[in-house]
Amino acid sequence: MYPLLDINGWEIPAYNLCASLAAIAGFALALPALRRAGLRRARAMVMLLLMAAAFLIGARLWNVAANPSNFHGALRWYSLRWAGLSFYGGVLGATMTLVASLRLWKQPVWAGLDAMTLPGAVAFCIARVGCFLNGCCAGRATSGPLGVVFPSKAGYQQALSEWLPFLSASRAVHPTQLYELTGAALGLPLVFWLVKRLRLRQGTSFLLYAAWFSAVRLAVLPLRALTYPDIIKTVVYPLLYVIVILLGIAIVLRRERA
Length: 258
Known about the structure:
Oligomer: single chain
Helix content: 55-70%
Order of helices and strands: EEHHHHHHHHH
Low-confidence stretches: 153-157, 159-168
Number of helices: 9
Mean pLDDT: 88
Number of strands: 2
Structural class: mainly alpha
Shape: globular
């Protein structure tokens, strides 16, 4: 819970640092994975840069559509700030770019999707550390044993007023950032073990992990302190998660039966 990290006298925003590390880690893991999937190095690097841009654009546009009130103050839809982003919008943009690139270059799409499973999950986990340190994306107030009281520091108070204006820094809240991080991390070895154990086809790692990750998000959703409209929190997001879960499992079963 340190929004501003003091590194040798330099105050660095924890979220920006972790987001940068997430991008670097994702790139470093994805490049050799895409090479193993059949892409040449130059094409893989170009595609990753395009995916990064598509992720940011998709994440911002999704957030504008889902939470327009977030952009009535200082934050604008065209802002370059790493705020006002929605993860699933980013994933959609990056995935569409990945699939389009692989089809253009006549490379196997399922192999490419599998190659991005580990890098994407690791990047998400690192970014969620930044969310926890920053105080954004926290959960609802709780009196349970897992509740966390974020410190009353100036940096945190700023994040608090921006993301959770109805909470107080003196109240314990669910550390939903850590819940999602833990769930995402646990799913990786489980999915890879299952794919190897059952000798499943290419694409299964991506599909099963997408289903697992969506199940984690669905489970954590009621604990999150979202400022989105009620229809987004109670209908749109639950429906989205259920569709991803069912569709991912259904495609796996259909492909294995073929």
